[in-house]
Amino acid sequence: KGPDPDLVAIAERMATVKHKILILSGKGGVGKSTFSAQLSFALASLDFQVGLLDIDICGPSIPKMLGLEGQDIHQSNLGWSPIYVESNLGVMSVGFMLPNPDEAVIWRGPRKNGLIKQFLKDVHWGELDFLVVDAPPGTSDEHISIVQFLQATGIDGAIIVTTPQQVSLIDVRKEVSFCKKVGVEVLGVVENMSGLSQPLTDFKVFDSSAGGAAEMCQEMGVPFLGKVPLDPQLCKAAEEGRSCFEGQSCRVSAPVLRGMIEKL
Ligand code: ADP
């Protein structure tokens, strides 16, 4: 039996991609897509050639977070063309394929895996410095698939996004353990919505003083990248699908995010 032709096709596509980074989270709603989007904007602003692949098939938020809602994917003889935000930032998401964004995507594992395979095989990224992959929360079929499909070409590592709460951290431990089991390096953990960018009296829900991700990282032997505060300006940038690094847009969170990216 010869090599799997799909894996061969994926390896060919990935031959022009220098670095592949997975963005993971234990739970939904912790800011994984926001981080993926802003990491991509930041890398692009540093003049890297960047691709952002959204494999959160049941809840794709990337089109909105990059201001690309309602765009359609085009096909050429080279494959599916990503949608470009800028000449050096291309995006691919199942969100571009859904006729109605309000419609639920109810797919079983094999169909999701099929689409992930197709994304890796058929998207014509061209030369990329970074492929940022926004994964769904948790460790499910999609995660096993992406790791398996990219095994031959290698994944540089994963960044795990969490909030400071123990409830979120419990699931991050599972992500770290997943990465260890499948041999993906944890590049670091980001503690998001950690404290507030603006003072608000008697607001303790996002209190970041206790333990949190830093302590867990130390315990699990993985790098801690830092804390991004709960920042209304970052939330607004995500809603409006724009970079938080431009102008004065996110005074508090943008320098923090930039510092994290420099550590990678
Ligand atoms: P996930 O991808 O983990 O499900 P999202 O990235 O979709 O989470 O974020 C959920 C919501 O929280 C979004 O509306 C986003 O704009 C907002 N958000 C994320 N991080 C921050 C932050 N640091 N400050 C304020 N709002 C944030």
From TrEMBL:
ATP binds at G26, K27, G28, G29, V30, G31, K32, S33. One of its GO terms (cellular component) is cytosol. Binds 3 [4Fe-4S] clusters per homodimer. Contains two stable clusters in the N-termini and one labile, bridging cluster between subunits of the homodimer. Its main location: cytoplasm. Its cofactor is [4Fe-4S] cluster. GO terms for molecular function: 4 iron, 4 sulfur cluster binding; ATP binding; ATP-dependent FeS chaperone activity; metal ion binding. It comes from the Eukaryota. The keyword Hydrolase does not apply. The keyword Iron applies. It is found in: Cytoplasm. One of its GO terms (biological process) is iron-sulfur cluster assembly. Keywords: 4Fe-4S, ATP-binding, Cytoplasm, Iron, Iron-sulfur, Metal-binding, Nucleotide-binding. Component of the cytosolic iron-sulfur (Fe-S) protein assembly (CIA) machinery. Required for maturation of extramitochondrial Fe-S proteins. Functions as Fe-S scaffold, mediating the de novo assembly of an Fe-S cluster and its transfer to target apoproteins. Essential for embryo development. Belongs to the Mrp/NBP35 ATP-binding proteins family. NUBP1/NBP35 subfamily. Although plant and algal NBP35 proteins lack the characteristic CXXC motif in the C-terminus, thought to be required for Fe-S cluster binding, they can bind a [4Fe-4S] cluster in the C-terminus. Also, in this linage, no CFD1 partner protein homolog as found in other eukaryotes can be found. Homodimer and homotetramer. Predominantly homodimeric. This is Cytosolic Fe-S cluster assembly factor NBP35. It comes from Linum tenue. The lineage of its organism: Eukaryota, Viridiplantae, Streptophyta, Embryophyta, Tracheophyta. The chain holds residues 42 to 305 of 324 of the full protein.
